[in-house]
Amino acid sequence: MFELPSGAEIQSIIASLNASVGFFIPEIYLSVLFMLLIVIDLVAKGKKNNLLSITSLLGLGGSLFFIYQQHFLPAQELFFGMYVLDEFALFFKYFFVLSGMIAVIITMADEQFDTEVKSMGEYYALIIAMVIGMIMMASSADMMMIFLSMELVSFTAYILTGYFKRNPRSSEAALKYLVYGAVSSGLMVYGFSLIYGLTAQTNIINISSELSQHGYDPLLMILASLLILAGFGYKIGAVPFHFWAPDVYEGAPTPITAYLSVASKAAGFALLMRFFYIAIPHGGPVYEDIIGLNWVTLLIILSVASMIYGNVVALWQKNVKRLLAYSSIAHAGYLLLSIIVLDAFGTQATLFYLLSYFLMNFGAFYIVILIANKTGSENLEDYRGLGKQMPLAAAALTVFLISLVGLPPTLGFIGKLMIFSALLAKGSIYIWLALIGIMTSVISLYYYMLIPLNMYLRESPESEEKNMNPGMLSQVLIAVLMFLTIYFGLFFQPLSDFAKYSSAMFGLKLY
Amino acid sequence: MLSLIVFLPIIAGLVILAVPSSQKQIIRIVSLLAALAQGVLAVLIWRAYDPSLPGITAGPGGSPLGSFQFVEKLPWISLKLGGLGSLNIEYFLGVDGISVTMVILTALISAIGVLSSWTIQKQVKGYFILYNLLASAMMGCFVALDFFLFYVFWELMLLPMYFLIGIWGGPNREYAAIKFFLYTLFGSVFMLLVMIGLYFSVIDPVTGNHTFSLVAMANQANYIKTAILGPDNVMWRYVAFSVLFVGFAIKVPMFPFHTWLPDAHVEAPTPISVILAGVLLKLGTYGMMRINFPLFPEVFHASMYVIGIFGAINIIYGAFCALAQQDLKKMVAYSSISHMGYVLLGLAAGNSEGMLGALYQMFNHGTITAMLFLLVGVIYDRAHTRQIDKFGGLASYMPVYAAVVTVAWFASLGLPGLSGFISEAFVFVGAFSSETTRYIAMVSVLGIVFGAAYLLWSLQRMFLGKRKPDAAYDLVVGDDGHEHIHFHDWKGKIDLDGRELVMLVPLVIITIFLGIYPMPIIGMLTSSINKLVEVLSPLAMR
What we know:
heterodimer, A: 74% helix, 1% strand, globular, B: mainly alpha, two-stranded antiparallel ribbon, two-stranded antiparallel sheet, 20 helices, 4 strands
């Protein structure tokens, strides 16, 4: 059935691969780092030191250099259209590497790892593997590649979630994550197969041109979109694909919770934007779907449901990690809002919001870890009186939470401002979405403020003075994160310009 | 100059951050110095202010900045947005007659608030940092001429206020603090949407870009006809006006959005009540005069009647509620609601007399209510209760206190010769001369009667007559053979002490002086008010 390629063809394939490798250096570098960490773990087995964490930190830092160099390369497709290098992908490369670095740093600060696990061998290697997977998610231009990279991320995430092997909550979380993950990626692959059946193509640009040339059955298309959204929606934690999120966020080691809630979510958004913006036609009257539904409608439903559900259910949470889990569902809803508008400004707003979410969410989780180190608890009630005992951490946590609500003068406010501006720039059609966003953020104030309420307004039941100083390094880091959240809230131009620069996909500005 | 007056308290706050928390006196003195410096600057601004320049908006011709004074305009953020040109936010400060009055009031009340905070003993450092942040944000609101900047200052007030009520408040403080926060946030988030909508609808005539400048927004010629809040989009303009109005009305607070205020006042410590009633409530009506009405003049014109009715409800309803209160502080809080109703009524009249009365009433209410809350605080410090019927015959034992209370109470009910009378008179002159509000004004006059009722009745119950059997104090016969009053666990002076006099006497002087000779304030705001009325008049509309 298949003919073997001739010698000349093989030569040209190899030549093309060789040409592409030059554009693939950060990924190769990170893969080497991944293997290096495993080797170091084997060599240095049994020694309790920071060798692994420092190596991963420096290694990830080094990769920024290679990513930076890619700015000077022209945007193009690689590996026969499997992979792509463009500004959009570069943005997420930075994003994921920096997330990985912060995940490593806050893991070093988390004292739970000292008691719960014996060896940190695979842990850091897996974090690196997840960085690679997420980078590839953001750069995939082919359905096969999308699936592979998503699975890479998922599998590492399952293991990392269950890393506290002796802790039943951690194992339960990992199992739940695995089951939901398996189901949704199964659905997604089914959606891919439908699209492949329609177009006989796997590359998303080819899919787009096939669909626009030959048309398609709208009912089948909405079904395929829905199935694929199940996969992406699971990654971003949007309602109704969110069921794993609260348990996983609560059960996983806190650095992994932070990592998943920021990086893995962002990877889902990268994929969602690239796939739906490019692959599936929309907007033009020719492709107007007959039943009046298209994937944008689906996203609107997802977004509204996430904002309402996430914010309302969070009101009753007593565990801070769980509370932040519901808040992250709500934030998936806000992020979807700016994708719905389908223009360059919307993309810019999404990327900007991701940046602000990066700072404030990592900051919040970092402090949750520091507090848990001292109090051994993540319950709201045990936060009582922390305002006096850990003044800097409590103040910083308040700033991050205010930023999550979206109040000035913090970065989160600018993020929300950009999203709502993107909606209102479209005239009056999306005002109702903006209204829902606004109303739910008022609701969110109540549960976010429960944390400062306990920290400042209530007295600690224990009167004896404990040593609550989280250490110099942590203090400095918190202060820096807090400063950045406020500084960029007042002078957000560099971030916004960067987000605008990064909104180009495949070397061209969309819409 | 304006930047300095805005950021002085924040600078003081940063200094306090570096002071160890055991050095309470230093912290207090730093705050006081900042407040006094603010006061000095306010006086300088008042002296240098040219009352002939109206401000409000940049009319046809003339400077694009309008005739604002002490203008500071710097580019703050200039973003390139995909497909939409650029986003320009300016650091744009300036004052006209409306805001300069409020700047003086804010400086005055801030300084008095610091003095009144002297007795705070719990977490002094945190308290003054938050207090200074609040003071900066309030001042910033009054001088910001860029909507974005205004919004930032507006929201910046919420968090310090939440903590100031929540940490240093009374027994039910958690509820009061979050209620305050949620109410005001609910109002202001809609303001955010309107702000974005306005941004996309207004073009700066000079640069040709979209702008957040309130000066440009106040000129209807700068609107894009078909934009979302442009003149053609009548429905959305009505919606935008309404949500802005609700946002500001929550702050005023206007019935039926007023319920946070009594809770907040009852729980808040005295200095925070003073700030809340003295300055924060004025931000609501200031926002209406600066943003809500001039930006949507035709909608304002159509809704004058409704605003007037709400004003009348505020006046009457607030007075009735005050009449029913047993708690003195709650009574004063409801009297605030009632008196802010006069401001709404004056605004609804839409003519120079009414607007002038409204603005003057804002200033007077600031000084008088600050005095009322301070006086409530004085008696609460001593007796640890505010129940009106736990007192009686105080006049004979605390004569100075009783005298000041009498002045304040009479000023509040609008006795001729005191400042409250003049502003209320202007409001009613305005309201009667306007066709729209004439009948509303007739009903509202009843408010004065009820106002007199609750104030005089409380005065009588607390200060006249004899000590009640269950009173909050004892009478002891002193060495000189006279009866003296004795409060449990109160070591200080029975009558007003030096610090309290320093806070109260200036306010008493201002109240009496402005009641006899109001020109220092009225003279400053006349031309601005006339310009505002002109902007709002149907002739100016297209």
